[in-house]
Amino acid sequence: MALQENPQHQEGETTKAIEEQTAKVPSKFFLCAALGAMAISLALKCSGHKHTALFVGQWAAPFLLLGTYNKIVKTLGHDQQDR
C-alpha cells in the first residue's frame, strides 16, 4: 500500500519535534497507564469516592489514544517527503 503525498499539507517543525520526542516513549507505557487508571478508579469506587473514581476512570481512553498516536508516529513518522 503506497502512501499518497500531498505537497500542500506538510508537517511543521513543531510537529516534527513532538513526534521525535513521543516516539521515544515505549508503547507499553500508555497501555500500563490506561490499566492503572482503571485499577485506581475501581479502588476509588470501592472505597466510596464515586465522583473521583469516575474522573480517574475517564483517563483510560485518552491514554489509549495517545498510545495509538505513539504507534502511528513510530510506524509512519514524518511526511514521506522528509525522508
From TrEMBL:
It comes from the Bacteria. This is Uncharacterized protein. It comes from Parapedobacter defluvii.
